[in-house]
Amino acid sequence: MSSQGIVLFGHGARDPRWAEPFERLAARLRGAGESAPHVSLAFLELMTPPLDAAVAAQVAAGCTRVTVVPVFFGQGGHVRRDLPQLVDACRAAHPGVEIRCATAVGEDDGVLDAIARYCVDQLGSDA
Amino acid sequence: MSSQGIVLFGHGARDPRWAEPFERLAARLRGAGESAPHVSLAFLELMTPPLDAAVAAQVAAGCTRVTVVPVFFGQGGHVRRDLPQLVDACRAAHPGVEIRCATAVGEDDGVLDAIARYCVDQLGSDA
Questions:
Q1: Of A19, A54, A62, B126, which one has the greatest count of Cβ atoms within 10 A?
Q2: Most B CBs within 10 Å: which of A3, A41, A118, as the mutation test of the B interface?
């Protein structure tokens, strides 16, 4: 398995069903075969594990590079203020590991295109 | 212009920059030319307008069918509990208008595929 890890970082919610798309996303990423990264979920609040625990588990599993992807639509306070502090704490805890942080998924053009297609499909349906 | 309206319903956040992807999504949907639906944003909290105001504005603009698309990743309490009540109130206020509600965008396979692609791209980059 790859020495790369990816942590899908979401807000968290009280209803456990909220996490289902995150689980499906993780399963897609794990399906890449030999080259698949280690994939973990982590949450800001209301769900576990928190980011530090998810990163520590990836490091313990041998990851030398961990990429945190904020599964948020926009770059609000959670992504701009809370997440950098959490990532810095992870870097301090694992100085030999490269820990990177991506931009929120909702800022990606490909993701926005897919959401726009979904919206148009909803209009066309008479169901 | 179409008599169809679409309302992109998001959670809302304190940081106004959080709404940027929603604005970009709305712009994409408005770019469909003559057949473009009326497109509005609405928010559960922390941002305006609320859903009832957005729907009322679409009805005032001549929409006879309004589709509410929850721009949420998962179907948690906000989508399962809060939103149906808000939509029911809109239906009661506009009995001659068909008001429909889609599933959260994060439940769509095409959206999840796009997010997965974005995640893989982050791994491959050395930036």
A1: A54
A2: A118
Give how far A62 is from chain B: nearest CA, Å.
16
Write down the pLDDT at residue B127.
45
Residue B13 is classified by DSSP as -
CB B67 within 8 A of CB B8: no
Quote the pLDDT of residue A126: 52
CB contact under 8 A, B67 and A123: yes
For B1-121, CATH number? 3.40.50.1400
Query: Comparing C-alpha atoms, which of A82, A72, A83, A81 is closest to residue A106?
Result: A72
B111 contacts A18? CB cut-off 8 A = no
- Asked if A18 lies within 8 A of B73 by C-beta distance, the reply is yes
Q: Where are the beta strands (DSSP E) in chain B?
A: 4-10, 38-43, 65-70, 98-101
Angstrom CA distances, B20 to A11, A91, B34, B43, stand at 18, 29, 25, 13
Q: Phi-psi region for residue B82, left (φ > 0), alpha (ψ -120 to 50) or beta? A: alpha
**What's the complex ipTM?**
0.94
